[in-house]
Amino acid sequence: YFVxxxxxxxxxxxxxxxxDHKGPLYYAFIRLLSAAVPYSLIGAAVVLGITCAIWFAxxxxxxxxxxxxxxxxxxxxxxxxxxxxxxxxxASIALFGASFVFATLVSMLKFAETGKRVWCSxxxxxxxxxxxxxIDALVMLPLIFVIGIGPIRPTRARTLSVTTSLAGATxxxxxxxxxxxxxxxxxxxxxxxxxxxxxxxxYPEWYGTGSPxxxxxxxxxxxxxxxxxxxx
Length: 232
Description:
Helix content is 71%, strand content 0%. The protein is mainly α. The longest helix is centred in the last third of the chain and has 29 residues, at 156-184. It is globular.
């Protein structure tokens, strides 16, 4: 990811200069850091360190917002550290996306607690950032709806808040995708083919879930890394 992000230029874009079935957001993150971070082994370590810092920051801020007891905070904190066990360095993109997933869940829990629409909008926007990092973050959408609307007797006002927030977040994410496409030199067609369709067709074939009905089920496999790093 570091080499790809640092190498992107007008003549060498994401999805056009090289293949990748991940989303563009982490590459955009690296591309922006390239203005201050050198293209070297040290630079790669710095980017990885910043990625890890974002993960711990999301955990720390989320725990503060939820006002949990110290024992619970300690357990979640140790879980955040344990997520690094046996991870390869290319798990950095999963960690980056999982940071947004954790923040997504915290924001929707705040909406469930306070009923303020700003938390609902923030939650969907953060989930969109996670999806633009790795498409498998979509497996979180049903859970977000359950938390936001409420599994028992959802009110009309709460349902309206969730619906309008989702519509606003969709516009925000599409705008961000257009910005990424300009920054990273790819077209929406290339993103659709490599970042979306590939994950729903070719990728499941590699793991024996190639039938059309199994494509949805394959999201369970695609979400394993997300689940182990984002939901601890």
